Fold:
Amino acid sequence: MSQSPREEIYKKMAELLKAGNTMLAESCPDCKVPLFKMKDGKIICPSCNRVAIYVKHGEEESVNRYQVIEKLISTVTGKLVEIESAIANEYDEVRLKNKVDLMISLLDAYEKLSKLKGS
Ligand SMILES: [Zn+2]
Structure:
């Protein structure tokens, strides 16, 4: 008894997941099966059995870049909230100046990150 090609693909996908590889949101342009990112960073189609780098590679990099920027923005935003309350409770002039400088740096970083995100 032989399995249908589709069952074989599902079986292979399950095996890939079990082995700790990641299923990507993108699918293979040829067979529409979800692409997998292997632990070594290679992107493969479990159906065509081939390494899919081509255009997907660049797209994946831009996705990662976007995620890093998003993460940085949320970190900077969190720090700004912290520094805001620190400034509100600071009455020592020297320390207040340091905190205001830090806030300005954070705002600067926030602005730059927002621009990067938009580009
Ligand atoms: Zn394929």
User: Anything to note?
Assistant: Strands lie at 22-27, 34-37, 43-45, 50-51. The two ends are 55 Å apart (CA to CA).
